[in-house]
Amino acid sequence: MKKLIKATILGLALIFSSTVFAQDKMANNIDNSNIALQGYSPVSYLDLGLAQKGSNVYKSEYKKIVYYFTSAEQKVSFDKSPEKYIPQYGGYCAFGCYAGAKFRVDPNKFVVKDGKYYLYLNNVELDAKQLWLAENDHAKLKSVADTNWEKLSKTHN
């Protein structure tokens, strides 16, 4: 069953790769505006466990990537320690990284675990968050995804 799930993910990688191909930033899932997380607040994910759209009124730039926040307080939190709030796998789908591919994500599909947050692809074909949770072994999935990310972060998809 696990091999079937992984094969399905890899097959879907071919289908969805064209949407990721247009991105010039290899290690970050951003659009041409350099806005991370489709404008969602990284502080909301980690500190509140919520997916909240940020505002361009409250924004910071870190390593040439722009992050939006819901309040001045969130911006201050981020500015104090930005590395804490950077999404895992550059904001690409965690399960995709586990399967060896970069996928864009649905910013409302995420998991917070051990002081980090992980984002997931979700569309009519696939709910990657549910696949991740169904494996019921976060440490194993993360270990494989981390290893794959070492290569993926250096490549255009």
Topology of helices and strands:
Blueprint: H1 2-21, H2 42-48, E1 55-62, E2 65-69, H3 72-80, H4 82-85, H5 94-99, E3 106-113, E4 116-120, H6 128-135, H7 138-152
Antiparallel strand pairs: 1-2, 3-4
Q: How is this structure best described in words?
A:
With 157 residues, this protein is of the alpha+beta class. The protein has two domains: 1-28 and 87-157, no CATH class; 30-86, no CATH class. It has seven helices and four strands, in the order ααββαααββαα. The strands form two sheets. Strands 1-2 form a two-stranded antiparallel sheet. A two-stranded antiparallel sheet has the order 3-4. The protein starts with a helix and ends in a 5-residue tail after the last helix. Mean pLDDT is 86; it is low at 13-25.
Count of individual beta strands? 4
Low-confidence stretches: 13-25
Percent of sequence in beta strands? 15-25%
Task: Please tell me what the overall shape is.
Answer: globular
Helical amount:
40-55%
N- and C-termini, Cα separation: 26 Å
Summarize the structure.
By secondary structure, the protein is an alpha+beta fold. It has 7 helices and 4 strands, in the order ααββαααββαα. It has helices at residues 2-21, 42-48, 72-80, 82-85, 94-99, 128-135, 138-152; strands at 55-62, 65-69, 106-113, 116-120.
